[in-house]
Amino acid sequence: MKQNPSAKDCVAFVGSSTIRMWDVKKSFPDMNVVNLGFGGSEIRDSTHFAPRILLPLDPKAIVFYAGDNDLASGRKPAQVRDDFREFVGVVRAKLPTTPILFLCVKPSIQRWSQFEKQKEANALVKALCSEGSHLVYVDLIPGILGTDGKPKAELFAKDGLHLNPKGYEVLNAEVKAFFSRR
Fold it and tell me: What sequence ranges are listed for the domain SGNH hydrolase-type esterase (predicted)?
């Protein structure tokens, strides 16, 4: 893979279609950002490709979203945590102090039946993040759920799974809040 020299010292966005569909250059115009998302992926996929695609960039931070495809395909919440731990291990072998932001597994209209598993996976990953240095758990749930405790329809595309531009505003706000504190 030929590296883009401007990608060095970037913030790398890594994960599934939630990342792939995020216009990070538009959302973060004052940051050097690279979108490495690919649709349908699971955490294990990001781990597999990290040595070839992510690590050569030597990013100054990693924004990570994956986990809901994992649960939808039958992986257990503890496996989501363990898979993320493995991803962190691969990254830490080369980038020991690079911050990794784990955007929690978001609830959605289409996968609402998975919400209890998502909450369990999120709690396990949050505990993992609290044990490690330079790991940040980002809770998206308050911004995604309405007062009725269900996903806000106005944040989702017609498929009820992917976010629309208004939904990405929730993610933008959380990521911007992290970088404004740095």
Answer: 29-170
